[in-house]
Each structure stands twice: as C-alpha cells, then as structure tokens.
C-alpha cells in the first residue's frame, strides 16, 4: 500500500513536470503530450485509491496541468514546427500517444462504474454517524470495486463470498482528507474510523452475529475469517452484511429486531482487512454453511450509489 501511495504522488508530478520542463517543440506533439497526460491523470484519479495523497489531490493535479499548459506554451512560443521533427520528435509523440491510448480503457471503465446495474438496487440508510467518510471500494465494475472479482465462476473459492460483490468499503477522514496521522501505522486504534458506532441501515432481524475475533495489526489480515466480527441483518427478503467490527463490541444477538439507526457494533480491524474500515453489502440469503454466497445486490446508501473516492459527509 505504501508503494501505491508513492506511485500516485510521484507519477503525476513526473508527467506534469515534463509538460513544464520538456514540452514538445511541435504544435501537434505538444497537443498529444497534453492529451495523453490528461487521460493518464483522469484514469489515475478515477481508479486509484486516494487515501494518500488525499481524495482531492487529483483536482490539484488537473489545476497544475492547466498551469503547465500555459507555462509550456509561453516558454516554447512560437513552436518550431506544426508536426514533430526527426526520429526523436516522432518517437516521443508516439510514446505519449501509446500511453494515452492505454489509459483510455481504465478511464472509461471507471466512469462506467458510476452507473449502477439496472435492476435490484437496494436502498439503505448510511450506517455511520456524524462525520466525513471516504469510499475505498464501490461501483459496478472491478475498476473501482475489487469485490466484484468474486463473481468469477472460474475460481471455485470465490463462490462462498460472491454475495459481497457489490460491497462498499468506508473509512473516516478529517477536514484535510486524511484517514490517519502518518502513512500506515500498525496500531488500528490510530485510524479515525476505529471505534465508530455502526448503525442498522434497514429494519429487520439479526440472523448471524459473529464476535470475539481479534483485531489485526495493520496491514496483517485474517483470511480464515474473511468478514471478521460481523452481523447479518435480514431485511425482508434480503440480507445486509456489515463487518470488520471490534471484538466484543456487537450489541445485538441472533433474533434481535432492529430499526434503522439502531446501534449494532463498533468499527474495528478484524478479518480480511488491510486497515480499519467498515464493509457493507446486500445479497439474497446464502446457505447455512456459506451465508455470504447469495446473489449479490447493488446498494444505494442514503440515496447515493457510492463509488471509489467518493467523499460522504454525514451532518
């Protein structure tokens, strides 16, 4: 994860620096350089996980790009030619063109992920109290939602977890967009979402309540208990799963009736989680031996179909 943080900071700065320091000498070459840089930044801003730098960093990068265009044009005005000159000029233009073409696919895929599936959308209340939050996984395809890989029928072990395919992962952030002080401290208690009260997102009955599993040190995971401490709320004909709770924090038991907003537990770092966050998803009921194997259902939280890097403010 730390290497991802570094890449998401360094790569955009390199691309922007090249526009300012080494702009193409030809008009066409400069246009290709700007277009490719913009597409690369768009793909990174939509598909990347912007915890560090924070979620607003891509907006800063695009502002810098606009400034870099002005500076680049000013420094090289007038252009020496309309089209690239020589082998080097064409090679650089072709390289940028190739990079831009490669980035188009993830950019389009990430934009498409913002459109929810046409059927079965489940309306739920947002399951956390007052604060500002950031979505780490969410959306309708794998470019912004890693959970969707569990729909791959070619991998038998995914079947037991396919119900989570439209799951949403949420962390809490401060006014600067940061979810923790530092980069990736090992103590889960250092993260802002840790200990937050989790509320029932729908009215229903608790049909599963698993507690007592330990919190993991960051970035360790417990792949033997994927959901960690969790509950399943049966809301009519569907199940809603919320997981990765603190041990001994669950305030309900099997058979408990809950209404929207009732307290369920506190956010922890149990199960298959790289750092403290809340996982929530909806599905058709699974089997007794594989309770998370039901057909997955996309969800909308407080009226929003949330996608990776969406900030959420709860007043």
Question: What does this entry look like structurally?
Answer:
This protein has 315 residues and is of the alpha+beta class. Helix content is 28%, strand content 20%. It has helices at residues 2-21, 27-47, 57-76, 86-112; strands spanning 122-124, 131-137, 168-173, 197-199, 204-210, 229-235, 238-245, 257-258, 263-266, 278-283, 296-297, 299-301, 311-314. Strands 2, 3, 5, 6, 7, 8, 10, 11 and 13 form a nine-stranded antiparallel sheet that branches. Strand 6 and strand 7 form a beta hairpin. Helix 1 packs antiparallel against helix 2 and helix 2 packs parallel to helix 4 (86-112). The longest helix has 27 residues, at 86-112. It is elongated and about 75 Å long. The relative contact order is 0.16.
Q: Which keywords apply here?
A:
single chain, alpha+beta, 9-stranded antiparallel β-sheet, two-stranded parallel ribbon, 20% strand
How do the strands and helices of this protein lay out in sequence?
Layout: H1 2-21, H2 27-47, H3 57-76, H4 86-112, E1 122-124, E2 131-137, E3 168-173, E4 197-199, E5 204-210, E6 229-235, E7 238-245, E8 257-258, E9 263-266, E10 278-283, E11 296-297, E12 299-301, E13 311-314
Parallel strand pairs: 1-12
Antiparallel strand pairs: 2-3, 2-13, 3-10, 4-9, 5-6, 5-8, 6-7, 7-10, 10-11
């Amino acid at each position: 994860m730390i290497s991802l943080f570094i890449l998401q900071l360094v790569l955009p700065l390199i691309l922007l620096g090249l526009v300012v320091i080494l702009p193409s000498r030809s008009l066409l070459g400069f246009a290709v350089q700007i277009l490719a840089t913009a597409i690369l930044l768009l793909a990174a801003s939509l598909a990347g996980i912007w915890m560090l730098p924070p979620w607003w960093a891509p907006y800063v990068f695009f502002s810098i790009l606009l400034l870099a265009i002005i500076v680049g044009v000013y420094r090289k005005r007038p252009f020496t030619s309309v089209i690239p000159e020589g082998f080097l000029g064409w090679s650089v233009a072709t390289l940028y063109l190739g990079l831009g073409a490669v980035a188009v696919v993830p950019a389009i895929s990430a934009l498409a992920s913002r459109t929810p599936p046409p059927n079965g959308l489940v309306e739920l209340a947002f399951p956390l109290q007052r604060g500002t939050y950031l979505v780490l996984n969410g959306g309708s395809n794998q470019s912004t939602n890693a959970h969707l890989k569990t729909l791959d029928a070619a991998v038998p072990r995914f079947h037991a977890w396919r119900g989570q395919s439209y799951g949403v992962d949420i962390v809490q952030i401060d006014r600067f967009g940061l979810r923790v002080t530092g980069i990736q401290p090992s103590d889960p208690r250092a993260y802002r979402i840790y200990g937050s009260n989790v509320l029932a997102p729908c009215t229903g009955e608790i049909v599963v309540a698993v507690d007592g599993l330990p919190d993991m040190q960051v970035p360790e995971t417990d792949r033997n208990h994927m959901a960690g401490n969790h509950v399943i709320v049966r809301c009519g004909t569907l199940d809603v799963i919320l997981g990765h709770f603190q041990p001994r924090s669950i305030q309900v038991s099997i058979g408990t009736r809950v209404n929207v907003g009732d307290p369920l537990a506190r956010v922890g770092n149990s199960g298959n989680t790289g750092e403290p966050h809340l996982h929530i998803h909806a599905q058709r009921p699974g089997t007794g031996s594989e309770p998370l194997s039901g057909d997955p259902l996309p969800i909308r939280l407080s009226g929003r179909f949330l996608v990776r890097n969406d900030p959420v403010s709860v007043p």
